[in-house]
Design brief:
- The protein is mostly beta strands.
- It is built from no helices and eleven strands.
- The strands form three sheets. The chain has a four-stranded antiparallel beta sheet, with no helix packed on it.
- It is globular, with a radius of gyration of 17 Å.
- The relative contact order is 0.13.
């Protein structure tokens, strides 16, 4: 995180939809006491249950990951990645998606877990089978005009029971080594 991070929050607009708003400091040197609406109320036609924010492509601005779990009214679980600077969020056009019918995404976090010089998305989903991983690590890729998320076999883990939340941090105090 850097001084001057924006505040991103989500809220339900009714029983079947939600919205996001992004606030930013209104001074060159943010004080954290006054805010402007940078992006006001981007409405979605579904409920987003989880939000993760971080820089996965190495560009100046962070990306936003939105997760919608399965519900009794919707049998598709959604995992969408949006950019702010290309109008993707405002126009509700994700640059990467990983939607599922056979599982439900639960949460995501963004951080550098593979020690490759940039952040990855660590996503968790419900899983009832050891052949169906519950933790997956996605890396951003760009080849010419093509871009998206890549999952490498081996960057997954099955956990029983399935996790419901993921957070990233250096809780061991050791960096880039096993102790």
């Amino acid at each position: 995180n850097v001084q001057g991070d924006e505040i991103i929050y989500g809220f339900e607009t009714d029983t079947t939809s939600s919205a996001l708003t992004i606030l930013k400091g209104n001074k060159t040197v943010p004080t954290g006491t006054t805010w402007l609406k940078h992006i006001t109320k981007v409405d979605f036609s579904l409920i987003w249950h989880e939000i993760a924010v971080g820089n996965i492509d190495g560009e100046q601005t962070d990306e936003i990951v939105l997760i919608s779990r399965k519900t009794p009214d919707d049998d598709v679980s959604r995992f969408h990645v949006y950019r702010i600077d290309d109008g993707g969020l405002i126009n509700k056009l994700p640059f990467a998606t990983r939607d599922g019918i056979d599982f439900s995404w639960q949460d995501a976090a963004i951080g550098e877990v593979k020690n490759v010089g940039y952040s990855e998305i660590v996503a968790i989903r419900e899983s009832n089978s050891a052949s169906f991983p519950s933790i997956l690590i996605y890396q951003y890729f760009r080849r010419g005009e093509d871009e998206g998320l890549r999952f490498d076999p081996g960057d997954d883990e099955y956990i029983d029971p399935s996790p419901f939340a993921v957070f990233l941090g250096n809780v061991s105090g050791v960096v880039n080594s096993i102790s």
